[in-house]
Amino acid sequence: MQFTHEQRLALQAAKIIELTNQNGMKITLTNLGASWMSCILPLASGQRDVILGSPNIAQQMQQTVYLGATVGRVANRIANAQFSIDGENYKVSSNQGMHCLHGGEDNFSYRVWAISQRHAQQVVFTLISPHGDQGFPGELRVDTSYELTDENQVIIRYQYQTSATCPVNLTNHTYFNLAGENTEKTLFEHELKIHSNDYVPTDKDGVPTGAWRGVTGSYFDFRQGKPIGRGFLQDEDQIMVGGYDHTFILDSTRIDGKQTVASLRAPAGDVQMNISTTMPAMQLYTGNYLTSVAGKTKEYTPFSGVAFETQFPPDAVNHPEWGAKYSPISYSNQRYTSETCYQFIF
């Protein structure tokens, strides 16, 4: 495994942090990418790690599928890696063909964040992204906080401020498999419920085509709950991108950070994860491109895990017609916050 000088320095600076609650639930995190590396539930049948992750920090540095990472400045796609603000055009890093994905080539998931606070059940990672980083305007300061509560919640909070008007769209890219990271079971047997009436159709590159589409009568209707495998790859939208890799517009009456917007149930029904958020949308990604990824106990393959990336819709910086609620634009010297909670019931 060959590393550049910068990567070697990053490896030396990378730290592993463990948080444990009074129930014996434990998560491990690293300041490399402010990433969530493991989530161990103390089940009656034994300990179970329910998220995909790299076997070590060196592999985390090498992986390209954003395992557990904080991604930014702008999660998801920016079409043609360009946008304009107040009449000024910006060209940013293109790392998915001609498009910008998850903030560009050297995005936040590869940075070593400072550990600015650390407590028994909470840690805060801090990153300063300079003006011009990956082509984005303004200096951006981000605090990413992870808290493990005694209610078996993992709460991820973002607080950020920029010195110039700029799109900011932060999310977490953890992949879940509630049957266990080491299981042979895929996400297909998991039951999923999403409180969403509309999704965002895309082209083959995952770039929105423009108009949203109602889920009624489609395989994107998870409002009543259904196995992820039911209706999988049965429509053109999915076939184009190899599965689900689409944003769902969340029920706006539920995005208060308290109410459940989505829930995932393990195949055996012994674990459930409820998601709440203050963000208006969520990308459902079924790990379509997990090919021979080095994992903790085995190589991960497509559909080994599923990600729920709460965020503003993709390419929203180029779609002002969607409205201010869905816009990622941050204005200079204003403080912004968001949070997403993953609660485990077992």
Automatic annotation (TrEMBL):
Upper lineage: Bacteria, Pseudomonadati, Pseudomonadota, Gammaproteobacteria, Enterobacterales
Any GO BP: galactose catabolic process via UDP-galactose, Leloir pathway
Binding site for beta-D-galactose: N76, R77, H173, T174, Y175, D245
Active site: H173, E309
Name of this chain's protein: Aldose 1-epimerase
Alphabetized GO MF terms: aldose 1-epimerase activity; carbohydrate binding
Organism listed in the record: Providencia huashanensis
Keyword Isomerase belongs to the record: yes
PROSITE patterns the UniProt entry points to: ALDOSE_1_EPIMERASE
UniProt keyword annotations, A-Z: Carbohydrate metabolism, Isomerase
NCBIfam families membership: galM_Leloir, PRK11055.1
Family: Belongs to the aldose epimerase family.
Keyword Isomerase: yes
EC number: 5.1.3.3
Gene Ontology CC annotations of this record: cytoplasm
Gene3D superfamilies (UniProt xref): 2.70.98.10
Superkingdom of source: Bacteria
Pathway assigned to this chain's UniProt record: Carbohydrate metabolism; hexose metabolism
Gene behind this protein: galM
Catalysis performed (reactions): alpha-D-glucose = beta-D-glucose
